[in-house]
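Dear colleague,

As promised, here are the two records you asked about, laid out in our usual form so they can be pasted straight into your sheet.

NAME FIELD: protein one
SEQUENCE, THEN STRUCTURE:
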Amino acid sequence: MSLAQKPKVRRCVCCDSSRKVVKHHWCGENHCAWFIGPLCEDCHQLLHTRATQAKIDLRNTNDPIMRIQQGLSMLTIGEWMLLEQLKREREKEVQPQRGEQS
């Protein structure tokens, strides 16, 4: 599939689920409305739970520096979630290879 083609089924970029996938504003809708990607309901909830734990305030603010800081903080949590998914995918690939070497 080329990058220009849209997939027939929308999938979560963090867990690959196709269940209840929504468009998510990765940096917060009030902070960077155009940066959107698909997340399932579970990963979306997890992202916001982690944002709350990190004390990221997603309320709108007139301070442009604060908006950037908050948006980048959300993006950092999203990046970490994506890296964790890549690690899980890599572990799935490596496990069968370990069994073949025995």
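NAME FIELD: protein two
SEQUENCE, THEN STRUCTURE:
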Amino acid sequence: MKTQLTEQDKSEYLKSGGDHCPFCETPDQKIGGVNLSGGHVNIEGKYAHQDVRCENCGSEWTDVFERVEIQETETEESAHS
């Protein structure tokens, strides 16, 4: 298992959509449950941060998200207008 990520490791993790542990490469979904668990999402301006933990190897990291779009949601009121 890796103890430090290279830029290539980070790039591969991002390209995959974060569907595996970047340290031990265990897929997010494993038989019988979820392998990656995420904490609360903290929003700061146009960025959001979420702490992630691999239940397989115990590694922890922070995913960083960037706001790129806004979508309107349909509320019960707008559905009846």
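A couple of things worth noting about protein two: The first strand starts at residue 29 and ends at 30. Strands lie at 29-30, 33-34, 36-44, 47-54, 60-66.

Best,
R.
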